[in-house]
């Protein structure tokens, strides 16, 4: 794959595909974590005289955080100490004129890429090449730098469509992410512990199945809705209120799959021994085998319990490699952040090489000032796809681009 330092960018027009998709509350971006993560790449390109065209998406159509990239431009301007102009267009005449007018060391941010219908669908690279998005912008671009690790599991025009037309280069963030994840996945160091939480249950089941079947993990610790599904698969009852919620979310149909994983790898998958429920607005911890488990019938489970946190901590402190994705509960409510914060603090305190990923996980880490984690990944779904052993379209596109343009490096 091409690295950022392989080329001279002075006077060249560079399309930088970043992933600045950020949490939004009341129409305002509330975290600049992803902006700071891509900053080294932006600074390098600008300092080396690139004419920089930044593209990013923000959420999906019809969702509450689906906004323009005007704030993204403002945040980048503040972080860089220079104007990054917001261009209210994706690939139309106005956008193309703005790109052509750029001078070395200047940067613009295109409108939310998902305002273009072509950018919403997943298509093979050959179809992405034929889109208006790519055909309109490709003639104006010399290089494509892709630093959108969090979107590497998607095949969309802005992510893969230029790869066979222009040299596609890894940004510093992309390179750092791939190196960290590859180290964790391919290492021979043991024990390797995976912590799977959050709501992406099907993705987490794929990870569990892959790393256990291929001998890449010794222990899997579960929490969040992933923990719920495995707990049900072990034959425990989580009460009518929680079963109804899981049925609405379509999670009960995954229990059989989780049971198949347990049948093959039972001792290696750990599930919570206690949970915290929202009992009339307060946190109440209930042991899975106690008489108080009737509370599960009426009150929602929103976190793992303190005994589970301690058991997980013991495992994590003895680990050599830790991969974690997703929170242990509804950490947005302070009283139900105990599990997530406790487990993440244990990961930070462990001597292991550790990776934690996922948007909610990152938010919790920064919110509670958790330190000591070796690598905080910007990707949630992408990270899960990587550890599930799946081919990531963007990484495949990097390889194709390298094969096509590698002669440019000679001499």
UniProtKB/TrEMBL annotation:
Entry annotated with the keyword Kinase: yes
InterPro entries registered for this protein in UniProt: Phosphoglycerate_kinase, Phosphoglycerate_kinase_CS, Phosphoglycerate_kinase_N, Phosphoglycerate_kinase_sf
Keyword terms: ATP-binding, Cytoplasm, Glycolysis, Kinase, Nucleotide-binding, Transferase
Residues the entry annotates as binding substrate: 19-21, 34, 57-60, 114, 154
Pfam family, one: PGK
PANTHER family: PHOSPHOGLYCERATE KINASE, PHOSPHOGLYCERATE KINASE 1, CHLOROPLASTIC-RELATED
UniProt organism field: Thermococcus indicus
Residues where (2R)-3-phosphoglycerate binds: 34, 114, 154
Pathway where it operates: Carbohydrate degradation; glycolysis; pyruvate from D-glyceraldehyde 3-phosphate: step 2/5
Protein name: Phosphoglycerate kinase
Gene this protein is translated from: pgk
């Amino acid at each position: 794959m091409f690295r950022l330092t392989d080329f001279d960018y002075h006077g060249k027009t560079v399309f930088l595909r970043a992933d600045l998709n950020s949490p939004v509350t009341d129409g305002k971006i509330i975290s600049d974590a992803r902006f700071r993560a891509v900053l080294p790449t932006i600074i390098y390109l600008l300092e080396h005289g690139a004419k920089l065209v930044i593209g990013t998406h923000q959420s999906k159509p019809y969702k509450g955080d689906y906004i323009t990239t005007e704030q993204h431009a403002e945040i980048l301007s503040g972080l860089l100490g220079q104007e990054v102009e917001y261009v209210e267009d994706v690939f139309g005449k106005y956008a193309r004129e703005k790109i052509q007018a750029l001078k070395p060391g200047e940067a613009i941010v295109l409108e939310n890429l998902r305002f273009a219908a072509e950018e919403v669908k997943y298509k093979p690279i050959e179809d992405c090449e034929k889109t208006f998005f790519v055909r309109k912008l490709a003639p104006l671009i010399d290089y494509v730098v892709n630093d959108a690790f969090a979107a590497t599991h998607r095949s969309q025009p802005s992510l893969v469509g230029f790869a066979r037309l222009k040299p596609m280069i890894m940004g510093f963030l992309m390179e750092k992410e791939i190196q960290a994840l590859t180290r964790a996945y391919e290492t021979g160091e043991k024990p390797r512990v995976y912590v799977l939480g959050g709501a992406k249950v099907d993705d987490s089941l794929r990870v569990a199945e892959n790393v256990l079947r291929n001998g890449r993990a010794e222990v899997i610790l579960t929490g969040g809705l992933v923990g719920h599904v495995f707990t049900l698969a072990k034959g425990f009852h989580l009460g009518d209120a929680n079963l109804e919620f899981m049925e609405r979310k379509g999670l009960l149909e995954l229990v059989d799959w989780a049971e198949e994983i347990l049948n093959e790898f039972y001792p290696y998958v750990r599930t919570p021994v206690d949970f915290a429920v929202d009992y009339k607005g307060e946190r109440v911890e209930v042991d899975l085998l106690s008489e108080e488990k009737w509370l599960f019938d009426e009150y929602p489970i929103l976190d793992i319990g303190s005994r589970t946190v301690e058991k997980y901590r013991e495992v994590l402190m003895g680990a050599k490699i830790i991969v974690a994705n997703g929170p242990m509960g509804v950490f947005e409510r302070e009283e139900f952040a105990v599990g997530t914060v406790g487990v993440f603090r244990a990961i930070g305190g462990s001597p292991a090489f550790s990776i934690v990923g996922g948007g909610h996980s990152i938010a919790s880490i920064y919110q509670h000032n958790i330190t000591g984690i070796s690598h905080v990944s910007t990707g949630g779904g992408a990270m899960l796809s990587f550890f599930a052993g799946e081919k990531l379209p963007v990484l495949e596109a990097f390889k194709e681009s390298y094969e096509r343009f590698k002669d440019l490096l000679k001499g």
